[in-house]
Amino acid sequence: MLSCKEISKLVSQSIDQKLTWRERMNIWMHLKMCRLCSAFRRDVLRLRRGSREQAILIEDDASMPEVKLSAGATKRIKQAIQSHSS
Amino acid sequence: MLFQVNTVIGLAANVWLRKTERPILAESDPDIFNSSVTATSLSFSFHFSSVDSRASKTDSLASVPVLAHFASLEVNLELRYLSHWQLFRDCKVCLPTATVAKPCLRGIPVFIAVRLICELAHRFTPVSGFPMHVGSFSREGYNYGSLLERTNMAIPLVTEGAPSLRPMAWVDEFGDYLFRYAVSRLRDVGAAEDVVQQTFLSGFQNREQFTGSGSERGWLLGILKRKIIDTVRQRSRTSQLTDSDGNDPLDQMFDQKGSWKQNVRSTLLQPLDAVEASEFWPILQQCLDTLPQRQADVFMLREMDDLETEVVCKELAITPSNLWVLLHRARVRLASCMKARWFQEKS
Question: Average pLDDT for residues B261-278, to the nearest whole number?
Fold first, then answer.
């Protein structure tokens, strides 16, 4: 019997790579009995979903409108481009 | 040969057009510069440069009638075409007055005229009510329809030319966007400013590699993503020495038998789904800050950037088993931290 610690590690791994048949069987049986590890699995999936959704929002520039380049940085960058273009 | 007008510019024109309810030119009038508004002039400084910069110089000032309150507005248009120097010289002649605009516009290829319109529309995006009609444009057998319907216009090129890039305008236009992206990944304002600067410089130096098939913003974002990974790799090398991975942080969560500790059980059973969507990102950011940098970086590359595990291993020069450990620790701690903060905020 694998412990919750070992199962949670496999659960985490299972969303990144295909596990062996035996490992999947182990997880499946354990989750049937263990509410805590089931909850952990749900959280891991939620973390992934939330992160990817956020990544799309950022790429579409639909997030963090308050974050802006400071005036100083803007000036510095422009000067850098200027000095490279001359 | 087809040339796709920059998507961003097209979209901006689109947005602007939607905002502008009152085109001052009739749909039937193809001449954009022949506006009937009687008011002060708007100065245009056209900067024409060829890619090899031999023929680069700032050329004529042209005026176009506009509403009085735009009188002081100066616009710099940087148009970069390798082989169209001569055409722009023609363009120069045609712009100064509305009366000569018509014949001259006829002399320049339609794609450049359309390009100019797009550029102009783009420049004036923030100014609502600018009296320039950018709607339909047809001439000499070409009918490009309305920019409203075409954000990606396929425009025939007479000869091959380099697509237009405006590096000096990049910082104002894309600086904040790229900075936001970089901050979200690097969680460090200084490092984010650095990669944004590197991105602009690299884009500037490699501008001939821009094919024009996508938007400038997308192209720059591609460069930025590369720079971000480089930064993460560099700091991963240095943090390897300082990150104390000696103590297993999961010991706080599991007892000696490997069962979840009593004090974490109630939090664990609370679903992470309870965190409202609008709060998810702010709380995730706070919690990422509590992780060792390498854990947070690995989590970002895998979960936000959706990089394959093999790629993450290769980029950061770590073994797969090392990656699993880092990812797993990050997930356990993030889930628990996020819920703790959320319920703390709510209560």
Answer: 89
B103-162 tens-digit pLDDT: 333 333 333 443 444 344 433 333 232 223 333 333 333 333 332 222 222 222 222 334
Quick one: pLDDT band at residue B32, thresholds 50, 70, 90? Answer: very low
SS3 B76: strand
**Is residue B331 a contact partner of residue A41, using CB atoms and an 8 Å limit?**
no
Using alpha carbons, select from B96, B90, B81 the residue that is nearest to residue B164: B81
User: Strand, coil or helix: what is B306?
Assistant: coil
A30: closest CA of chain B, how far (Å): 12
Cα separation, B127 vs B52, in Å, equals 34
Pairing assessment for the beta strands B41-49 and B74-80 based on DSSP bridges: parallel
A75 and chain B: CB distance < 8 Å anywhere? no
Alpha-carbon gap, residue B91 to B116, rounded angstroms: 10
Token readout for B268 is 């664990």
Distances (CA, A) of A69 to B193, B204, B221: 7, 19, 16
Among B159, B231, B229, CA closest to B194: B231
**Which two tokens mark A41?**
């699995």
- The CA–CA distances, whole Å, from B47 to B6, B62, B142, B261, B267 equal 19, 12, 27, 68, 62
Question: Cβ contacts (< 8 Å) between B168 and chain A: which residues?
Answer: 78, 81-82, 85
Which helix (H) or strand (E) covers residue B48, if one does?
strand B41-49
* Predicted ipTM of the assembly: 0.94
**In whole angstroms, what is the distance from residue B318 CA to residue B343 CA?**
36
Confidence grade of residue B213 (pLDDT, cut at 50, 70, 90) = low
Contacts of A42 in chain B (CB under 8 A): 271-273
Q: With a CB-CB cutoff of 8 Å, which residues 283-302 of chain B face chain A?
A: 284, 299, 302
By C-alpha distance, which of B254, B274, B279 is closest to B332?
B254
Does B171 contact A at CB distance below 8 Å?
yes
Instruction: State yes or no: pLDDT of B257 exceeds 70.
Output: yes
pLDDT band at B243 (very low <50, low <70, confident <90, very high): low
Residue B212 has what pLDDT?
65
Write out the two tokens for B199. Answer: 């991105």
Apex A71 CA angle, A70 and A75, nearest 5:
120
Q: Which of B140, B2, B130 is nearest to B67 (CA)?
A: B130
Sort out which chain B residues have CB atoms less than 8 A from A68's CB and list them. Answer: 176, 179-180
Residues forming beta bridges with residue B62, ordered by sequence position: B44
